[in-house]
Amino acid sequence: MDLQKIKTLLDFVGRSRVSELAVSDADTTVVIRKPVRDAAASQEIPTTVQALATDEPARLDDRPQTQLVRASTSGIVHRSNSPGSAPIVAEGDVVDVGQALCIVEAMKVFTTISAPFGGIVTRIFFEDAQEVTFGDPLVEIG
């Protein structure tokens, strides 16, 4: 991923209400997180960038204890691939990078939400067929 693309992503996150953005390109994943501000914080919003090469996975001690996977779009979230079938993942399941976690349906378009990092599913924040908005937490992975 080139530096200009990363600068553009930083600018987008800094000016938006997005609190976390993960983008993968070829063999690189860039994660940009915006810290939560309180009322006393300055108007300047710092962002952090963590670039990970996929051929060299992050060590367990380099990662936060848990990480949130957020909705990439607004819509109705589904826990399974079809009505009546088993959930794609459940609390306690071990997931790998890229593994499907749930599906968000918006205007009959189905978007699979995949794990941007591996770990154990520690919490699921939604019920099946619940409405979510962009940025809502969906799954916590630890």
Compact overview of the structure:
This protein has 142 residues and is mainly beta.
Average pLDDT, rounded to a whole number, is: 79
**Assigned CATH class of the largest domain:** Mainly Beta
Strands of the biggest beta sheet: in what spatial order?
Answer: 4-11-9-6
Proportion of helical residues: under 10%
| Number of discrete domains | 2
Instruction: Write out the CATH superfamily name of the largest domain.
Output: RNA polymerase II/Efflux pump adaptor protein, barrel-sandwich hybrid domain
Shape: globular
Rg calculated over all Cα atoms:
16 Å
Strand proportion, as a percent range, falls in 35-45%
**CATH architecture assignment name of the largest domain:** Beta Barrel
Note the total helix count: 1
Structural class, judged by helices and strands?
A: mainly beta
Extract low-pLDDT stretches: 38-54
Number of strands: 11
